[in-house]
């Protein structure tokens, strides 16, 4: 039974390796991830190591919440480092000189009329690894981002969103 499970795991792992996800990113997005990775490796790791040393000084590890917290922080940080390294290794950087000026694409800044709220909104279309909806950076894979891709000024799109259907008109397309 164990060998059967092991073979399934190996097979699934091999399949995943051959179909590695590529992360479409802007140059700024890559730079931001590189900075975060550098911080985690050079600063955060040292801070965590120091916290673990201090917590070990408290003695009995079975009831040492400081130690548990530091180890959890270490696990989270190491996981994030692996995630960032994977994203950077598989990043496909958008060549800004190739971004069309008349069509929405990754790297575009697009102003739209949001008919649901009767207001103009400006979105940056970015890859999923650098999306930040709170700052109006939407992923090219999100419902709104993918619906806007390839559209021109004057085009109107209807997008299925979690609470229904939203309607947007492209008002302006630019790049920075």
From TrEMBL:
Residues 24-93 form the Transcription elongation factor GreA/GreB N-terminal domain. The keyword NADP does not apply. PROSITE patterns: GREAB_1, GREAB_2. The keyword Phosphoprotein does not apply. One of its GO terms (molecular function) is RNA polymerase binding. HAMAP family: GreA_GreB. This is Transcription elongation factor GreA. It comes from Clostridium celatum DSM 1785.
């Amino acid at each position: 039974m164990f060998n059967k499970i092991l073979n399934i795991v190996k097979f699934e792992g091999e399949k995943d390796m051959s179909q590695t996800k590529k992360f479409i990113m802007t140059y700024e997005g890559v730079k931001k991830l590189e900075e975060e990775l550098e911080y985690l490796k050079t600063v955060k790791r040292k801070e965590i190591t120091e916290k673990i040393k201090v917590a070990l000084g408290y003695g009995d590890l079975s009831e040492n919440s400081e130690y548990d917290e530091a180890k959890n922080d270490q696990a989270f940080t190491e996981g994030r480092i692996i995630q960032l390294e994977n994203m950077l290794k598989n990043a496909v950087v958008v060549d800004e000189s190739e971004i069309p000026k008349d069509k929405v694409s990754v790297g575009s800044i697009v102003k739209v009329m949001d008919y649901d709220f009767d207001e103009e909104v400006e979105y940056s279309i970015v890859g999923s690894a650098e999306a930040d909806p709170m700052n109006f950076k939407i992923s090219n894979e999100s419902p709104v981002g993918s619906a806007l891709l390839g559209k021109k000024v004057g085009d109107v799109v209807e997008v299925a969103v979690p609470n229904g259907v939203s309607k947007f008109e492209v008002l302006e397309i630019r790049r920075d």
